[in-house]
Amino acid sequence: MNGNLDNTKRYSVVKQFPSLSKKFNFMAKLGESLYSYAERTPSLKGKCEEELMYKFVFFHMMLKAMKSLKAMYELLQLGCVEDAIIILRSIQEILINMLYIQKDPFQRSRLYAEYDFYVRWRRYELSKEIYPAESIAPPEDQPDALSILKREYDRIEKNYRRPYSWSGKSILDMARDVQRDKIYELTYAKHSDYVHSNPNSASRYVQEHGDGLIVDMDPKSEGDFIPEMVDACVHTVEIAKLFNQAFNAGFKNDIEELEKEFMEIFEVDKKKHQSNP
Predict the structure, then answer these.
(1) Do the domain assignments include residue 98?
(2) What is the domain extent for residue 267?
(3) Nearest CA to 49 among 39, 38, 57?
(4) Do residues 26 and 70 make contact, with C-beta atoms less than 8 angstroms apart?
(5) In whole angstroms, how far apart are CA 190 and each of 173, 196, 231?
């Protein structure tokens, strides 16, 4: 068995594969760029409530992608490729959601945002069956919180046909709607193996050998990292483009420079690795 949790023997991918250093540096730069875009973005303003909600939703999604990219960076540095794949799946889902919302930004942004009332009330109702009443009571300084939540739930409940989907569609259906079903079929579905518990989720580091199993959690080559790094960067750059479009924030040239640098560092063909099919 190879692989332990002793921090005094902390694994470092860059030490084992020095040629990955520039690629990791680019991932860090991409994350820092997203943070910079968030800081430099004009205040959340809109000509109407729907436009304001659209910008709020895309701001939220871009921040989520930024945090997920940072998490992937840290996990990959430790050689935790399978765990990084779980985070990559989240980035792919963010992109599919943004592309789907972009086709009808005002109406779909409202559906996405107000789904929060739906989820929180349903979870509260379930919690009442499991936890003591005092543990799920609203804070003392917000005595009306539950009544307000119930009122909003009653207002929007009819808008959600499927209890576990804000859009009423599966991720695959949304991907098909925006012509990105290849993302789902080639990577998202495969990455789901690592999210859910099934035999394939351990296939990267558990192999049969003779009368027993070999467990080796350390990566074997650069190839264990590059596909995930490429996908994460491609999707995150597109998320940045959608964010810039929503805010008309003036980051177009910056993002194009990042994209150019990505292609040079990872030595990939843009046509083969772009999110578009």
Answers:
(1) yes
(2) 19-110+170-273
(3) 57
(4) no
(5) 17, 11, 13
Q: Which residues contact 11 (CB under 8 A, 6 or more apart)?
A: 3, 78, 79, 218
Strands (E), the chain: 206-209, 212-215
pLDDT digits (tens, 9 = 90+) for 133-156: 776 777 767 779 899 999 999 999
User: Which residue carries 């194009």 as its tokens?
Assistant: 256
The CA–CA distances, whole Å, from 184 to 192, 200, 235 equal 10, 18, 13
Determine phi and psi for 85, rounding to 5 degrees.
-60, -35
Structure-token pair, residue 154? 């009653």
Instruction: Check whether 75 has a pLDDT greater than 90.
Output: yes
Distances (CA, A) of 57 to 2, 60, 122: 43, 5, 22
Give the residue with greater pLDDT, 75 vs 273: 75
Number of domains in the chain: 1
pLDDT band at 181 (very low <50, low <70, confident <90, very high): confident
Write down the pTM of the prediction.
0.85
Tokens of 179: 């012509």
- pLDDT, average across residues 162-186: 89
Q: Let me know: does 173 contact 161? Beta carbons within 8 Å.
A: no
- Cα of 53 vs its chain's centroid, Å: 20
Tell me the per-residue pLDDT of 195-232, one tens digit each, with 9 for 90 and over: 776 666 666 667 677 777 776 667 778 888 899 999 99
- For residues 113-151, one letter each, b for 16 or more C-beta atoms within 10 angstroms of the residue's C-beta and e for the rest, the string is bbbebbeebeeeeeeeeeeeeeeeeeeeeeeeeeeebee
